[in-house]
Design goal:
The chain is mostly helical. It contains six helices and two strands, in the order H-E-H-H-H-H-E-H. The chain is globular, with a radius of gyration of 18 Å.
């Protein structure tokens, strides 16, 4: 949400409930989010990372999984051949993939990465209408196009700030499986 509110601030726009929104659309979008997240989590954390941790260890496995996740999004975002978008997509989705892979490695469970990933996709796609499904719950209204620096700041907020929040959360609040707290 931070990135969406930053965008609205920079553009002097507002978020409004879409005129054509209905419960069926929200449920369809939510189901799409669950299916896409389930598929990606099962592939990148449930299979790839699980195997990599056993073969090369957690650190290397998390890194390889994150790289694969970033590369995969070149295809899902349709940016193959466009160098700058490829770099930005790789960094943003790779960092997110790193956070989710790290959460998997620490907890030995797919549940936390699934929840974090679903929370992000649902907020991005369904609440703020930023994904491939078009207008959903909220749409940006009014404002002006962003200039070079404001556009870069807005883009970097989603590319770097959100993944850093995920990484900080995993670092500060997620305990290794079997780790105990001292009281």
């Amino acid at each position: 949400m931070l990135t969406q509110f930053l965008e609205a601030f920079l553009k002097s726009s507002s978020w409004e409930v879409a005129d054509n929104i209905n419960l069926h659309s929200i449920l369809q979008s939510s189901l799409w989010d669950v299916k896409s997240v389930s598929t990606e989590e099962l592939i990148f954390r449930g299979v790839l990372l699980y195997i990599l941790i056993g073969k090369v260890g957690s650190r290397k496995g998390v890194m390889i999984s994150a790289i694969a996740f970033g590369v995969y999004h070149w295809f899902s975002y349709g940016v193959i051949g466009n160098v700058m978008p490829m770099i930005f997509v790789f960094i943003g989705t790779g960092l997110m993939g790193y956070g989710w892979a790290w959460a998997f490695a620490k907890t030995k469970s797919i549940m936390l990465p699934f929840g974090l990933h679903l929370g992000w996709n649902f907020t991005y796609n369904t609440i703020f209408s930023k994904g491939p499904l078009g207008e959903m719950l909220l749409i940006s209204h009014g404002g002006s196009e962003l200039g070079d620096w404001a556009s870069l700041l807005n883009f970097l907020s989603g590319l770097v700030i959100v993944p850093l929040i995920i990484l900080a959360y995993v670092h500060l609040f997620v305990r290794e499986k079997g780790e105990t707290t001292s009281q």
